[in-house]
C-alpha cells in the first residue's frame, strides 16, 4: 500500500494521518466496510481529515455526510450542493463495498466470519509547494492494492488482488480519473479547506 503501508490503518484509529508529520498541509479520506461491525454499529464508515483533524463524516446508519468542524459549517465554506453531492458519492461507495466484501471473501476462499475492506486516499501540499497523492486499499488489515499515479498503474500486494489490478488497468479512464483527482481536484479542495479552516487549524499546531 505504498509508503504508509498497513500501519496507516492503525493510525486512523488514533486520528492521525500517515506521512503528514512535518508537512504544511494534508488531506486524507478513509472508508471502512465491515461484515460484522458489532451490535448497533454502522457497517460502513467514511471520514475525511485535514491536517489530522476530522472534518466530515458519513456512515451507513445516518446515510449522509455531515460537517464535523465549525469552519465546515460556516456560511460560504462550500457550495450549496456540496453535502448532497458528497452524500450521493458516499452512498454509491457504500453499495460498491457491500459487493466488494462478498467478492473478496470468495477470492480468499472464506465463508462467514468478520472481514474488513479499507481505503485511504488523499493528497499533501509539501513545504516546497510540490504535491503528492495516495490511493491504497487493504483487506482484513493487510495491504491489498495501491495506485501509482505517476505510472498510472496499480500494484497488487497479494495474489488475490491481481484480478482487480487487471480489471482497473484494462480501462485507462479509471487510472486517468484517479490521477486527475489526486493531482488536481484533491489539491484544489485541500487549499480551499485550509483557507476556510485557517484559524482553527493554526490553533491546533504544536
Automatic annotation (TrEMBL):
Topological type in the membrane: Single-pass type I membrane protein
Database matches in Pfam families: MHC_I
Taxon lineage: Eukaryota, Metazoa, Chordata, Craniata, Vertebrata
Major localization listed first in the record, in broad terms: membrane
Gene Ontology biological process terms, A to Z: antigen processing and presentation of peptide antigen via MHC class I; immune response
Alphabetical list of InterPro entries matching this protein: MHC_class-I_related, MHC_I-like_Ag-recog, MHC_I-like_Ag-recog_sf, MHC_I/II-like_Ag-recog, MHC_I_a_a1/a2
Similarity section: Belongs to the MHC class I family.
Record GO cellular component, one term: MHC class I protein complex
Gene3D superfamilies: MHC class I-like antigen recognition-like
Region forming the signal peptide: 1-22
Stretches assigned to the MHC class I-like antigen recognition-like domain: 24-201
Cell location: Membrane
Record's keyword terms, sorted: Disulfide bond, Glycoprotein, Immunity, Membrane, MHC I, Signal, Transmembrane, Transmembrane helix
Protein name as annotated: MHC class Ia2 antigen allele B
Amino acid at each position: 500500500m505504498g509508503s504508509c503501508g498497513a500501519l496507516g490503518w492503525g493510525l486512523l484509529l488514533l486520528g492521525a494521518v500517515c506521512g503528514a508529520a512535518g508537512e504544511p498541509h494534508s488531506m486524507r479520506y478513509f472508508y471502512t466496510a465491515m461484515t460484522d461491525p458489532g451490535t448497533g454499529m454502522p457497517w460502513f464508515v467514511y471520514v475525511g481529515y485535514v491536517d489530522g483533524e476530522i472534518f466530515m463524516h458519513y456512515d451507513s446508519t445516518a446515510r449522509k455526510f455531515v460537517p464535523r468542524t465549525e469552519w465546515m459549517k460556516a456560511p460560504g465554506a462550500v457550495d450549496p450542493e456540496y453535502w448532497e453531492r458528497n452524500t450521493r458519492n458516499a452512498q454509491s461507495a457504500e453499495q460498491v463495498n457491500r459487493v466488494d466484501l462478498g467478492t473478496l471473501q470468495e477470492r480468499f476462499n472464506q465463508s462467514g466470519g468478520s472481514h474488513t475492506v479499507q481505503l485511504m486516499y488523499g493528497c499533501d501540499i509539501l513545504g516546497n509547494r510540490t504535491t503528492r497523492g495516495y490511493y491504497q486499499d487493504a483487506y482484513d488489515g493487510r495491504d491489498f492494492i495501491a495506485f501509482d499515479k505517476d505510472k498510472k498503474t496499480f500494484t497488487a500486494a497479494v495474489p488475490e488482488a491481481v484480478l482487480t489490478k487487471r480489471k482497473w488497468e484494462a480501462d485507462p479512464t479509471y487510472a486517468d480519473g484517479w490521477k486527475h483527482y489526486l493531482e488536481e481536484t484533491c489539491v484544489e479542495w485541500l487549499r480551499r479547506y485550509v483557507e476556510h479552516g485557517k484559524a482553527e487549524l493554526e490553533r491546533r499546531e504544536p
